[in-house]
Amino acid sequence: MQKIGILAVALALAPPALAAKEPAIHPAVTTDPAPDAAYPAGMSAFTIPSEDGALNAVLYTAAGSGLHPTLLLLHGFPGNEQNLDLAQAARRAGWNVLTLHYRGSWGSPGRFSFTHASEDAWNALQYLQQSATVAKYRIDTSAIVVAGHSMGGFMAADVAAAEPHVAGLFLIDPWDPAETVAALATPQGEAAWKAEVASDLPPLQGASYDSLTTEIREKTEKFDLGRRLVGYGRRPLSIIGAERGIGAMARKVAADAQSANPDTRLMVWPTDHSFSDKRIALADALVRFLKGVAPMAR
């Protein structure tokens, strides 16, 4: 009885984190929420006009009444990994999620280029803040987060740095074009970039090795991820790199970001560029980041 009494007192005095341990995986990653008959989850497909083309887009809408925080999720180059499992997890956590294909990619009309992809990401971000969009999809414009994988990581940082209304930035093994340009100075680096572009061109329209390489060589100030992250400033930022991907780039740009925001969080995991064996962990990291930005999201 004495031991039991001591244990009861110890538990009563224990901090909440010890008394009620947080789940290892956030429930939104693994468990469907109860259906909401009045305001069910849904999905809308449409196009977003963008300069001389348009973006084939899908908006996953969260269940529940009222305004919802919203995630803009940007895929990479060319976008073989869509990360739609992350979109579904974010929606279960109460977030709307907008995904899209850049101009000239995967059937979206127009010509693909890195400059166009930057403009497309910006136009998508502005679309989420238009009054008609806000009213139709019940968007909380005070809680818009941008996330991006690989090239989409650069595009996410690019538009978030330029738009002060972005509340958070989540980068998944992000690509730094400036590092690619530096690598082009060596035969090995040039060969690797040529092989990368050759494998990625089939779903893209109007792009070539020469056009894409010229872009990042001539617009060095624009296509510098570290510079974009410094410009993003002190808003919430999480970077997750991949050891077997381009995690070295993640480490370098995280150091740049930390010079402006010491609270920048960096993790580099032992996985490949697509996080093939870390999908649950990646979804969990994203959901927890989103909950940090908008704790009251359903």
TrEMBL record:
Protein name: Alpha/beta hydrolase fold protein
Pfam families: Abhydrolase_6
Signal peptide coordinates: 1-19
Keyword Transport included in the entry's annotation: no
Keywords, comma-separated and alphabetical: Hydrolase, Signal
Top-rank taxon, per record: Bacteria
Ranges of residues in domain AB hydrolase-1: 71-276
Family, similarity comment: Belongs to the AB hydrolase superfamily. FUS2 hydrolase family.
Gene Ontology molecular function terms on file: carboxylic ester hydrolase activity
